[in-house]
Amino acid sequence: xxxxxxxxxxxxxxVGLTTATVLASCGYKVYAVEKDPKxxxxxxxxxxxxxxxxxxxxxxxxxxxxxxIITDDLESSVAKSDIMxxxxxxxxxxxxxxxxxxxxxxxxxxxKVLKPKTIFVQKSTVPVGTGxxxxxxxxxxxxxxxxxxxxxxxxxxxxxxxxxFPDRIVVGGKSSADNEAVIEIYKSVIxxxxxxxxxxxxxxxxxxxxxxxxxTTLASAELIKVTANAFLALKISFAxxxxxLADKANANAVDVLEAVGADKRIGNDFLKAGRGYGGGCFPxxxxxxxxxxxxxxxxxEIMKSATAVNESMPEYIVAKALESLGKPLNxxxxxxxxxxxxxxxxxxxxxxAITIANLLVSKGAKVKTYDPQASxxxxxxxxxxxxxxxxxxxxxxxxxxxxxxxxxxxxxxxDLREAQKLSKAELFVDCxxxxxxxxxxxxxxxYVGVGQ
Length: 452
Ligand code: NAD
Known about the structure:
This protein is α/β, with parallel strands linked by helices.
């Protein structure tokens, strides 16, 4: 695997580091540019600063064969590149709009040094219309490089897998030749996917998936990404609305949603009730979409409702658990299992699991918690009264209520008889509907699910 192309990747978070390490493993010479000194020094030591299966193996390989160069020097990296990927963060402003400071910052810096033939590829999730503003920066700096939107769809926890086996690649630019040049890079990644998966030590989940290459306009590519995330968020909030009704009507939301999703036109993915979505993407992508639609004079009421339903779920679950317990939590020991916003990642940004843990403290519970990967990351957002345990068994010891707030395999597969022996808990709150209520009940716990 060797290629003559030189690529720079700006921003080494979940998206950038995955992109850079995979491209380096495919033989490209890759400058991975990160400006945060703490992150940079961890990366230079040959490790990732976040948990992601396979990423450490790819960093080691890239550093070893010298295809991966980790640096904070954006200008000289970009000046040497045939193509550049911008993967910086796009957090939300307090009003919900997208904060594009980093996006415009990279555009400003890069456009002063880009070679005319180098393509600037935007992988960050940005509101529709951002590309035109970036192009205005290019024009101001007399930069003639092409600008292409290429939104990223990877999921944390399977980021390497998703990059090697994508279901679609979306590229939107002014000329189809520029789009094709970007698509060529992805075709080479896909041609190498098995050997890179081997280096990363990951098992391909679905090798049958054929990648769709979608070449479109700049504005459409920008809108595809935020629309996809908004629709998934909508599906989750729809499932949660039906779960609330099922609770009242004595129906079982798991059965209902499974049967509804069995219709091929609807599908089961993301049609699941639980404690709602979190993370560094869905909440801010939805609020960014609502905000940018408003700027175009469009009221996306449907997404405002989805947000409200999502934000209500932690409180809804805690209230349901308290009702089932039948007594106040005053000083009672409670354990919250899971802090990451989803299983398979150490990312705790906007994690509903953390909201649940903090809510329980506010209701008077003595809360302890355990997460296989995300303890460190959660510290800043967790109430200081919460005790972070270092193992599942120490977390379970002597507690009144168990909340499974993130569905790590370690929790879903735990020995419930052993959990009952250790905890002597009365109540088992299945915040993501991952347990069989009968099995939980057979182990002397009272079961509480979402919509069941
Ligand atoms: P992140 O915050 O984890 O990483 C961004 C990195 O960029 C940070 O380490 C930051 O220090 C660095 N950075 C910022 N400005 C820089 C500059 N001028 N030079 C060098 N480095 C710079 O973000 P992320 O989760 O990787 O997401 C990046 C983008 O991709 C966002 O727009 C996000 O919405 C989108 N996205 C994320 C995911 C995901 O699962 N995390 C999936 C798809 C799309």
